[in-house]
Amino acid sequence: MTLKLTNLLGAAAVSVAALSMGALAASADTIKIGTVLSATGPASFLGDPEMKTLELYVKEINAAGGVDGNELELVAYDSGVDASKARTFATRLVEEDEVVAVVGGSTTGTTMAMIPVFEDAEIPFISLAGAVVIIDPVKKWVFKTPHTDRMACEKIFEDMQKRGISKVGMISGTGGFGKSMRDQCLDVAGNYDVEIIADETYGAKDSDMTPQLTNIKNTEGLEAVVNPGFGQGPAIVTRNYKQLGIDVPLYQSHGVASKSFIELAGDAAEGVRLPAAALLVADKLPDDDPQKSVVVGYKDKYEGATGEPVSTFGGHAYDGLMMLVEAIKRAGSADPAAIRDEIEKTSGFMGTAGVVNMSADDHLGLDLTAFRMLEVKNGDWTIAE
Amino acid sequence: MAEFLQFAFSGLTVGAVYALVALGFTIIYNASDVVNFAQGEFVMIGGMATVFLTALGVPIPLAVVLAILGAVVVGLLLHRLAIEPARGASSVTLIIITIGASIFLRGLAQVVFDKQFHTLQPFSGDTPIVVGGASILPQSFWVMGGAVVIVVLLWAFFNHTLIGKAVLATSANRLAAKLVGINTGMIMSLAFALSAAIGAVAGVLVTPITLTSYEVGTLLALKGFAAAMLGGMGHPLGAVVGGLVVGLLEAFGAGYLSSDYKDAIAFVVILITLFVLPTGLFGRASVERV
């Protein structure tokens, strides 16, 4: 509903703009937008759904008459996780393909490599990667759609504060995701009166965390445990946690927000809490939730078209593309600078990640409501709030 | 005391798996002088094949047998297609061939199976047993018990069967073994099949605890190699002791020192062994092969 309304407003704004400029509406041009994603390789779990989402929705937008009668053309490259490849493709997008905007960058590494290219060429760039460094400090031409690990920490600690928990043990993966989130959690813990009283780590391929968890268990005054991590590690931590009979609440991160976590951790996952995007529980949102229509709409479309279960990562691509399309409509032109200005003015945009309100000093525009606190009950996610 | 026991259980469970991988290294090394870095892939094949067969509706016991047979076939093919054609090449060349084979097998596993992590139901439930304040999963007993059974069977095989003695003879002196009528080519095939089977059994036993995916073999091969080096390359008892020691060192290191260095411990073991005790704990006093 909200989306439709903004569409209408956008269309109205555009017709006014088109009348005054008289150029855009007259000739049906193609608007070229670019993307560089990690569609194959170790980060394909990010890039693959992102690529499919972009292709799906560009096709759909064109079938519905394009953006104000102008057809969208998606120029897509697959960089794997290779940052230097991503940079080469970014240069090609700018110099050969002459795109007006870019939605892409599956990983923080590839995104950071591409940023200088788009900054130099003055092309708006909406990144789909996680780390906070992408938009902090703010770069004029760079935006991003996914929530950050810092927000995940804040969401967890906020929930702990509500439950009266203040003494917390951490067990973190040493991979990029776990390490970065561990640092962010340590950084914000104080803001929520949370004290980290145990701090252990495990390697990416560690297969038994009982020694680390035994140390955490034996820490005096322990009230909860947080496990920033990704992949199979958190599932093993959860199993070991149950094995050792640790009876304080366990919090996982949004890094394991997928069904496979529950499958791998089995019964041990019962009662585990984690912050995650609304997309994961699309069907369970109450009907009056303003985000429900967006996430259910995207989920049904993606699952119907690909036959694969929806992931939050594809959702980030959806958010990026839709925000860009609305910005192009509002700008009423395919001029990169005009598009950039309009992206920055995005407000009240309802995406799969939450409500986006951008400003000159916030190129992410999400707040903590973007995360839902979930709890595993009877082998399924439930909304804990 | 409770935490000491907890660390010890953790170390023994993981160590038993390292020991089985190290045994695989040892058997192939003895029969052919090849250090087979694709040993970890046998563990992966055992676990992954069992997971996928059970997903297809095959009952677990049958799935386990089929997975082990599958690994044996892969082991035989590895020998026939990769090692045999390069016979007479230097050991460095052969090692590089096995590393290539291991990369190939990982790639193949991504296509045949998938890139996700999988688990198996524990064989006898997942209610931990509490011993002296430390809790241990029933599956850990399966892993340790399985390792003991395999070691006993191997010992009986090598010491009480003609064919086992033929393997020992081949490892002692290939030329002499050939001269007394032992089919050394067949013995080498047997060694690869045996190693693959042991690896696959380890994979099946440990999957309910550690989960499995196409790439679990890499790290296991390195840890198993460290264990085999520590015990003395080519010495079966050394492989078992080496595996348990590496597992225990990791658990105690992570528990009492810092978990940051858990994975580094195996490599420190390799380095110290090479510097201080190049032949390993049980290795014969250096018999240089020239």
Number of strands of chain A: 14
Spatial shape of chain A: elongated
**Share of helix of chain B, binned:** over 70%
Low-confidence stretches of chain A: 13-27
Strand arrangement across the biggest beta sheet of chain A: 2-1-3-4-5
Q: What do the pLDDT scores of chain B average to?
A: 89
What gross morphology of chain B would you assign? globular
How much β-strand is present in the residues of chain B?
Answer: under 5%
How big is the Rg of chain B?
A: 19 Å
* Biggest sheet architecture of chain A: 5 strands, parallel
> How large is the count of helical segments of chain B?
11
**What would you report as the Rg of chain A, rounded to the nearest angstrom?**
21 Å
H and E order of chain A: HEHEHEHEEHEHEHEHEHEHHHEEEE
Q: CA-to-CA gap between the ends of chain A?
A: 24 Å
Number of helices of chain A: 12
Plain-language structure description:
The complex is a heterodimer of chains A (385) and B (290). Chain A is an alpha/beta fold and 385 residues long. In chain A, 43% of the residues lie in helices and 18% in strands. Chain A folds into two domains: 2-148 and 288-368, Rossmann fold; 149-277 and 371-383, 3-Layer(aba) Sandwich (Rossmann fold), CATH 3.40.50.2300. In chain A, β1, α2 and β2 form a beta-alpha-beta unit. In chain A, α1 runs parallel beside α11, α5 (149-162) packs across α6 and α8 runs parallel beside α9 (259-265). Mean pLDDT of chain A is 87; it is low at 13-27. By secondary structure, chain B is mainly alpha-helical. Chain B has helices at 2-32, 39-55, 60-83, 91-112, 138-160, 162-172, 174-179, 184-210, 216-231, 236-257, 264-276; strands at residues 129-131, 134-136. In chain B, a hairpin with a 2-residue loop joins β1 and β2. In chain B, α2 runs parallel beside α4 (91-112). Chain B is globular and about 60 Å long. The mean pLDDT of chain B is 89. The chains are: A alpha/beta (385), B mainly alpha (290). The A-B interface holds A 44-45, 174, 200-203, 205-208, 210-212, 214-215, 218, 231-232, 235-236, 239, 242-245, 260, 263-264, 266-268 and B 3, 6-7, 9-10, 13-14, 115-119, 126, 128, 135-137, 206, 209-211, 213, 215-216, 218-219, 251-252, 254-255, 259-260, 262-263. Chain B: The chain crosses the membrane at residues 7-29, 49-78, 90-109, 129-158, 179-205, 237-258, 264-283. Chain B: One of its GO terms (molecular function) is transmembrane transporter activity. Chain B: One of its GO terms (biological process) is amino acid transport.
